[in-house]
Specification:
single chain; 299 residues; mainly alpha; MetI-like fold; globular
Length: 299
């Protein structure tokens, strides 16, 4: 007895749960838009890098505000806003003389730093190469470098005033003598740490001293040089602010000292924020140049 053939009926698809629908919708959006992944990763990176400092800063301001200062000490943030609102909102005003906004004081100080630090960078790299490449120069000059680098910036100010008799060259000298030592030391360390294989290849190829300097020494020591430059630019910014407090004229250091004499503590706090942000920007700028040059050197 034969059994009748069974016909297979197509299965009726079941309705997927709502969670599965949502996941599939997100997957379809990502597939339909190739830029979605890049945008989401960029937003995630921004949130990871920006959110923590913003939250920390907000917490500090809240605690500072709730501390209830102003009892003869530091003013609280609300008081700083009331007393220094013009300085915060309009840093670009210029009424002539020393009555300028913080932007112009920062620009004046940066112009001095640019000159003094540039001279320190050129001279520091040259002296560092000499100390690193020549054993006798290292033995003779390294103790002197180690002693001079420990002298505080303001200790050089009376000597510079006695030598130059003017405020502007004295400030440039203080910047130069303060920021040159990290460049010298890091450059010398970089030269001494050049791999011996590089030196051997240069000898086999019979490179001239100039070719060795350009093709071997500079690419190998670039990370060390820019480490010294980053330290040096920070020290030069410290030096100019300290020296301008005593030299007078236009500049962020003089502004801070002038506001202290006028007992305007709120303006000093605002100026210190500008000083910190400018120093941070200088460090990041030198670091960016170092990354660009290092890629070119390695290539």
């Amino acid at each position: 007895m034969t059994m009748p053939a069974r016909t297979l009926e197509p299965a009726v698809p079941t309705e997927p749960p709502s969670e599965l629908k949502a996941v599939e919708a997100v997957a379809l959006r990502k597939t339909a838009s190739p830029a979605w992944g890049r945008v989401s990763s960029a937003l995630a990176a921004i949130s990871r890098n920006v959110a923590p400092p913003v939250v920390a800063l907000a917490a500090v301001l809240v605690v500072w505000q709730l501390s209830g200062g102003d009892g003869g000490g530091l003013p609280i943030p609300s008081t700083i806003w009331l007393e220094s609102r013009e300085l915060i909102v309009d840093p670009f005003y210029d009424r002539g003389g020393i009555d300028k906004g913080l932007f112009w004081h920062i620009v004046t100080s940066l112009s001095r730093v640019a000159v003094g630090f540039s001279l320190a960078g050129v001279c520091g790299i040259a002296l560092g190469v000499l100390l690193g490449a020549n054993r006798w120069a290292h033995r003779g000059l390294d103790p002197m470098v180690q002693v001079l680098r420990t002298v505080p910036p303001l200790a050089w100010l009376p000597l510079s005033l006695a030598a130059f008799h003017q405020a502007q060259p004295s400030a440039l000298f203080v910047i130069f003598i303060t920021s040159i030592w990290p460049v010298v030391i890091n450059t010398a360390v970089g030269v001494r740490n050049i791999p011996q294989d590089y030196v051997n290849v240069a000898r086999v190829l019979r490179l001239s001293p100039l070719e060795y300097f350009v093709k071997v020494l500079l690419p190998a020591t670039t990370p060390y040089i820019f480490t010294g430059l980053r330290i040096g630019v920070g020290m030069s910014w410290l030096a100019i602010v300290a020296s301008e407090m005593l030299l007078g004229g236009v500049g962020i250091g003089f502004f801070i000292w002038d506001q202290y004499n006028a007992s305007r503590i709120s303006d000093i706090i605002v100026a210190l924020v500008w000083v910190g942000l400018t120093g941070f920007a200088l460090d990041r700028f030198v670091s960016l140049i170092g990354r660009i040059v290092s890629r070119g050197a390695s290539a």
